[in-house]
# Entry
Amino acid sequence: MPDRDAALDAIQRELTAFARRARHKAAQMHPDLSLVTYSMLDLVKERGSCRAADLAAHFMLDKSTVSRQVTALEKLGLITREPDPEDQRGQLLHPSEDGLRLLADAAERRRLAFRERFTDWTDDDIARFAGYLTRYGAGD
Amino acid sequence: MPDRDAALDAIQRELTAFARRARHKAAQMHPDLSLVTYSMLDLVKERGSCRAADLAAHFMLDKSTVSRQVTALEKLGLITREPDPEDQRGQLLHPSEDGLRLLADAAERRRLAFRERFTDWTDDDIARFAGYLTRYGAGD
DNA sequence: GGTCTAGGTTGTAAAGTGCAACTTGGTGGC
DNA sequence: GCCACCAAGTTGCACTTTACAACCTAGACC
# Structure
């Protein structure tokens, strides 16, 4: 097998390995929110405001699933919904104060865990790794 | 926020994004097997033989979950079980001929998809990306 | 206006998962 | 040898996540 294929296999295996354990770790890190729900909240924050359809497209989830998760986030008081003034069919989602606080807390805890994990990485290595992942992710 | 923390945030976000979509893509690529079930079969192949407890430890899953997935794999004829001669409590799992064939097919399809995705990456970039992922995964 | 499309919601069913209780087989103290 | 304890798996149970389908409402286009 060519080196390139061997490297691609390694990439596939490692990414899959990460996915397998992600849920478990996410549950430890954010006991109150599932990985997907947390990610949705995070995306809503990143975008400032977005519609449920955007979430469905981004996460490759059915709109019904998104609808339920969004309902859950609203019941938890982490996001607010308002009808889109430009299109009454949709609704605009925004993070609430509590939602932003939760995200900030989670980011801090996450960063602490990550700092520890990457102690023996140089800044250059981290930057390149992040660059590769971003490049890979852009192909999704 | 320091550059290093920004890069760590990007790494976390991209890895999580991958995890979110992994199941969906896995379902497309292996319609008959879930991501976890497929991964279990793959690990059994990698190890040659292993016990259910090994799978539970590796995937951070409850032994009951593993028990059910292993039962499913056996019903599909993809693995075989035999009592461990050295410890009658456990059982040794092996991939069957069908299981090996399925893994080979999946690896081939996966490789094709990956080749396409990485067409505009240089060999060096791919090798470095794989190296970073392996290094990251080693910390698990 | 009528038809078609898009965003969301709800009903339903299936799969994955963890916890707890249980069975069986090994280990170690007495 | 016997009894208590631990380890590997299995099963019952409840909960969560998810997709598909049917439906409702609101724009879009003719």
